Amino acid sequence: MIPEEWLHSTVQGIHHSVDDDQMDQLLNALRAEVAGVEPFEVQLGPVWPGVTAVTVAVYPEDGMAQLNEGVRTAAGKVP
């Protein structure tokens, strides 16, 4: 069983170092980008356990896709 505090969903990885100023810029841009996203429900499954992570399908994909687009747009605004 995975401890509750470890449960999360990675929406978009940022695969390089960011400093504190860039993180603040990203958070501000992200808040603006996803401000209009309404809460949504998802169903999870099937599950694919791995050595270092458990991957799970998320349905429907629309809400998560909208969040992902917002994160990618926000990240693109930070130099």
TrEMBL record:
Gene3D superfamilies: Cyclic phosphodiesterase. This is Uncharacterized protein. It comes from Streptomyces noursei. The lineage of its organism: Bacteria, Bacillati, Actinomycetota, Actinomycetes, Kitasatosporales.
